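Note to self: keep these together.
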Amino acid sequence: MPPRRRSKKNRDLPDNLSVDTKKNGAVYYCYTHPVTKKRNHWGRVTKARAVAAANQLNAKLMQSEDLIGEVLTKETGNTVTGALFKTVIERYKAECMPNKKNRASTLEIQGYRIKRLEADLGNKSIQHYTLKELSDYLDSNFNKDPYIKYRALLVDIYRFAKRKGIYVKSDNPASETEAKNNIEKSRKRLNIEGYKAIYEVAPGWMQDAMDFSLITLQGRHEVVNTKFDDVIDDHIHIIREKTKDKTEKAFIRIPVKDDLKKVITRAELRSSNSPYIISRKPERRVKGMMNNRDHWQQVLPDYFTKQFKKYRDACGFFDHLKPKEKPTFHEIRALGGDLYLQAGYSKDYVSSLYAHTTLKTTDIYLKGHRIKWSECEANLSLKTALKR
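Structure:
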């Protein structure tokens, strides 16, 4: 694809160098890194100095990919050695992505990230990205969780390229970038007081959903999709959508008794022959409301999330937090797990309800709820130590 046509005022300048003339006549120069797209403002330097600097940077940062790829092809006999990054991504999407068995929503998010990498890094050979270039790209464009996700995707793409013989070097420059896996998430944990505050302003159907999640430790998808028919022989059968294709632990059978039985009975009395345990009666029926629904009282996941946020914000308990810090419905699962531990249940018991494959994942959910005190003693005798 040919480069975008440059504006008239930048046409006589080297690639990646641009000029901005202010109303007062002041002239400022800016250099845009060809890989990271980070803009470097040089201020009021002379045109000659700006052009000279841009030419030197371009000579180092903009290699002639076609010529280099041609040389490497002759040297190695491998026609894909000089493959552009976007070509590798196309093969990754076609050959690797279908085998990952992820949910549709996960694949959609992954697809967005792939498009971003293709747009930012696609026009250079995967063979020639250096560790510094990839590190600068990640640092300049992403923070916190997005940084972790994009880095992991880059690492996986390079691994795929090595398996296919496209990337012929021995290293994986993406895996050598800083991991930053110790980044704390912005969202705060939900405690009992916060749960009660939301519960007090929420309507009955949302209260049922909250209690159902707190007891069963299930997420939004399972809460809104579980049906009364899933209760067989006094046991409720739940399939964790996120992990059903990855582990048998995703298939959960829970005895319906005590408070769980009360919640389900309460929900049944509230509904009007709805097949779903969690359902609501709309104030009025509107055209198109049956789109994506198989019953008029069904609660769709996106609507459920918006309603929970509505009641969370209405209770006022979280007004001191920034929007990204406020707990979502997902945090009820984590709170429930911690309450089980406080009640004396084992971590294995909690992990089975979470449908986790490892206790390491369970630890992530349970982290951050309480201060865990270390038992110790302080038996120093002052009389003996100080000879009093």
